[in-house]
Amino acid sequence: MKSPKKSYTYADYLTWPDDERWELIDGEAFDMTPAPNPVHQGISMELSRQLANFFLGKPCRVFAAPFDVRLPKRSESDLRTTTVVQPDILVVCDTEKIDNRGCRGAPDLAIEILSPSSVSHDQLRKLNLYESRGVREYWIIHVEGSVMVFRLGESGRYGRPETHDRTTKIETPLFPGLTIDLSIVFPENTRVVKQSPRGYSAGKTSERS
Known about the structure:
The chain is α+β, with helices and mostly antiparallel strands. Helix content is about 20%, strand content about 25%. It has 4 helices and 15 strands.
């Protein structure tokens, strides 16, 4: 029998096994294991390389998962924060948000690479979350070779996404001069099987099949 569903906080999150990858969104826990596959990792490494090369010597910093981003509501203290996520890649320009536990507050750019366990999670939950918390740009990477770029407008909402394929380059007014060459990012002939991340049940962390 599953344990009763409850709302978790960052304090709970810190007690969970280090070899498991979890995310919290408004107190609900999502199991993000198993580890990403080689295609996912290759895309992440190449995107990180291009971003790191551009930001070398600049104040903005580039991080890759696993790296905790706490996104507290205004009334939440750090340990009572109910949202902790691990974007595949993020860029943070306000270095005061960075501490020895990760990042506290919205990054300027969050990038999620869709994996079999995260399709609906990244395209729905994360999209709404990043918009509500003020992430200025959110890129959703489809491993087959396309990218959706969401930008926060003056209304505080994401507009219609800008779409790219493996033959194009991404440029953004958020970081003038940055060019991401997608022809280098994407490998050929990739496939995705859709699944959903599972919720957390206390005492059930080892029961995976």
